[in-house]
Amino acid sequence: MTETILYDYWRSSASYRLRIALNLAGIAYTAVPVDLVKGEHRSKEHLARNPQGLVPVLEIDGLRLTQSLAMLDYLDQTRGLGLVPADPAGRAQVQALAQAIAVDIHPVCNLKVARHATDLSGGAEDMPGAWMRHFIRPGLQAFETMLAGFEQSPYCCGDAPGLADICLMPQIYNARRWEVDISDLPRLLSVEAACAKHPAFAAAHPDRHAPA
């Protein structure tokens, strides 16, 4: 059995997702930090792992995987995590929730995108926070409305955490970091409370992985 290695950054949303999933799967792994602030993701060493220069990168089962949604799908398929329903309709609905965050909100709030926006603004003092709030709040409002299509339950789509929860929790972390008002989103707050009590989510929280 080859060692499982996760190259990540403690505040990366995509890395946070993988930490949750690895914990849910009960997979022990070695975390290798890649400091985005210091530009370590642009090093030759890391670009050899991922030509996109992104985190996370997951080495598992003799494979080297990139892109968090692809990695989550691999873990779901090989470890039977039940992250999405088996029926095609339910699967599509849950994937839509996950992608509403991972495909729509997250990319425009990526660190390099926000930095570029700040540069274009001439370094406006509140630019990073204003940029994040501009995209995160309406995105989470839409997510809250989408959840109305599912019965009330501890997690987004049932009594056990799934793909939507794994994508949602890192985005809520970012919302709180950038002082986004989510006080009027009761379903999201309910899911957040349930996930916070789950050991796999608690152990993956960025505060548990921050540099000393």
UniProtKB/TrEMBL annotation:
Domain GST C-terminal, first and last residues per copy: 87-212
Enzyme class (EC, first level): isomerase
InterPro entries assigned to the protein according to its UniProt record, in alphabetical order: Glutathione-S-Trfase_C-like (IPR010987), Glutathione-S-Trfase_C_sf (IPR036282), Glutathione_S-Trfase (IPR040079), Glutathione_S-Trfase_N (IPR004045), GST_Zeta (IPR005955), GST_Zeta_C (IPR034330), GST_Zeta_N (IPR034333), Thioredoxin-like_sf (IPR036249)
The EC number(s) this enzyme carries: 5.2.1.2
Domain GST N-terminal, first and last residues per copy: 2-83
GO MF annotations, alphabetized: maleylacetoacetate isomerase activity
CDD domains named in the record: GST_C_Zeta (cd03191), GST_N_Zeta (cd03042)
Lineage top rank: taxon: Bacteria
Chain ranges passing through the membrane: none
Keywords assigned: Isomerase
The keyword Cytoplasm belongs to this UniProt entry's keyword annotation: no
Pfam families from the UniProt entry: GST_N
Family: Belongs to the GST superfamily. Zeta family.
Entry protein name: Maleylacetoacetate isomerase
Organism: Ruegeria alba
Lineage: Bacteria, Pseudomonadati, Pseudomonadota, Alphaproteobacteria, Rhodobacterales
